[in-house]
Amino acid sequence: MPLCISDLDKSFLSAFENSTLEVDAFHHREHLRLAYITLVLNDVDLAYRRIRAGLLRMLQRNGVGSVKYHDTLTFAWIQAVKHFMWLTENANSSEEFLSQNQLLLDKNVMFTHYSQALINAEQARKQFVPPDLVPIPDHGGL
Asked: From CA 66, how far away is CA 56, in angstroms rounded?
């Protein structure tokens, strides 16, 4: 069986795209879940554009503005999820995928690819900057 999404995943995606999710309830796991769902349905570039637009819309709707958005981390995690999708034979949902790939749940994993200085740089917040330590395996995209 290939990588699939569940009805719950479809509802989650719909709530995200309709900006009905609360930003306070949207943490690392939800970002990963969104990346998986969107990547099952789209290529890397379109997934990135959809996620970026939706995150900015959600932040705006919740009165946070774009100050909390980080473009480098957004695209880097999309790449990481895509890499683990390449390594996963099958999953029926985002939850099943994440249970098979728990390393993704460790937010600090990204610091094997990026230095703290680069992640904290204003340029990295505004636009994607490639890793300065170890490349993330690239399975297509920007």
From this structure: 6
d(CA 26, CA 40): 20
DSSP 18-61: TT-S-GGG--HHHHHHHHHHHHHHS-HHHHHHHHHHHHHHHHHH
Token pair of 39, please?
Answer: 């990547």
Tokens found for residue 71: 């473009």
The tokens for 33 are 């879940």
pLDDT at 34: 98
Q: Rounded to 5 degrees, what are φ and ψ at 104?
A: -60, -25
Q: How far apart are the first and last CA of the chain?
A: 28
| Verdict on whether the full-model pTM lies above 0.70 | yes
Q: What residue type is 115 in one-letter code? A: S
